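Re: iron/sulfur cluster structure - here you go.
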Amino acid sequence: MYTMGIDVGSTASKCIVLKDGQEIVGKSLVSVGAGTSGPARAIREVLENCNMKREDMGYVLATGYGRNSLEGIADQQMSELSCHARGAYFLFPKVRTVIDIGGQDVKILEIENGMMVNFAMNDKCAAGTGRFLDVMARVLEVKVEDLAPLGAQSTVEVGISSTCTVFAESEVISQLAKGTDKRDIINGIHRSVASRVVGLAHRIGVRDEVVMTGGVAQNYGVVNALQKELGHEIYTSPLTQYNGALGAALFAYQRYQKEQKA
Amino acid sequence: MYTMGIDVGSTASKCIVLKDGQEIVGKSLVSVGAGTSGPARAIREVLENCNMKREDMGYVLATGYGRNSLEGIADQQMSELSCHARGAYFLFPKVRTVIDIGGQDVKILEIENGMMVNFAMNDKCAAGTGRFLDVMARVLEVKVEDLAPLGAQSTVEVGISSTCTVFAESEVISQLAKGTDKRDIINGIHRSVASRVVGLAHRIGVRDEVVMTGGVAQNYGVVNALQKELGHEIYTSPLTQYNGALGAALFAYQRYQKEQKA
Ligand code: SF4
């Protein structure tokens, strides 16, 4: 029995196909999200990868910022908060705190036995989100995916004192004008993201194990800075990018079973 | 007897020369602020305008974000909050509320008999500040000083739902892509600034008369939007840009008198 989870984020669309609610048999990621062809392409890709059709799916559940665009395609929609909690619990059964940094928001979830019991969220301010890193990468004329390896080569500590994306961008511009090494600036940017996120995390408290999810979890410069600032070990994996979609596929399996019984 | 007030802001340097603490005999404004040649140029300009020298000034007082850069030039430094209160009281003796929108911050002052008794300030976030308008003008490819006349020609209401500068910029870009009239977008931007500032103003309450100062007070599109959203008449004048410098020159006069007595 197969179920599909689709996570339509602000900047990426992700799909997971799950067998019997246990085994990931296919995944896809398209780097455009809500309001684009991304969700449809992600669905097509994951089905091709598994060599299956929409009809082979027992249940399809959509989550994320743009989930409502999938009415008629998905059997149900569900909040990304629940799906992220569920996905992280599947990957890391001891998880108590999820730090999810997406393209346009930051969420901190407190988890108990795989259920979300509390959360803090910033979706009004670009500071500390993937967008912050996008803006900085553009000013520095480097690719976002090169930020982590470049920052790792930093030798001098450079402070970025503004948390606001706009003011921090000006600081980066004047650092560049002063001739500061890009790699040191990048390291400062990673610390800036970390301190912003830690501020949010402290609102609900941080408990071990801490799992980081979302696109920014792929940037190990941010993960390391967060780890230092938080004083907790942070678990992550390449699969955490699919965390919301995974949670959706798990909930899809649960729904399917319920419907079979009914 | 002449005194000088210098306001070293984040984006402009302003000077006022006052005769006997009563009459404005000279003013200057240079559109670059702290950390540039702006303050020195503004001082040179105002002295040239009045045909005077530094030695002719009985007392020189500096205020604003970059006031500490004028040690050795100014006789004293003073917080811009007090100077703004004092300047506004001179221009509008019935003032109870000052809304000051500068290049990088927003301040709301509650005034009683010319003294500041309470304030609310945002200097951490670019939303609602002059910087917000700069960013939008750049994306729209219009001059900041053309925003007000263009917005006044708007015929259709366009909402900018994000208050964050970064997210609002994306909204503007997608409105442009949809072919929305720039003048309608500009009007939406003015309302966005207004709603952000009103949020801050309500923290301390708004009392008549309301005076608006700072560079953004020259944008009557923002003033009108604020007036509507606030439900209070707003007083402003071309002199309000010099408000901080004016307050500094007034305090300089007071200091001078005190020193003469001592
Ligand atoms: S602090 Fe900066 S990034 Fe955050 S809402 Fe304000 S303008 Fe946006």
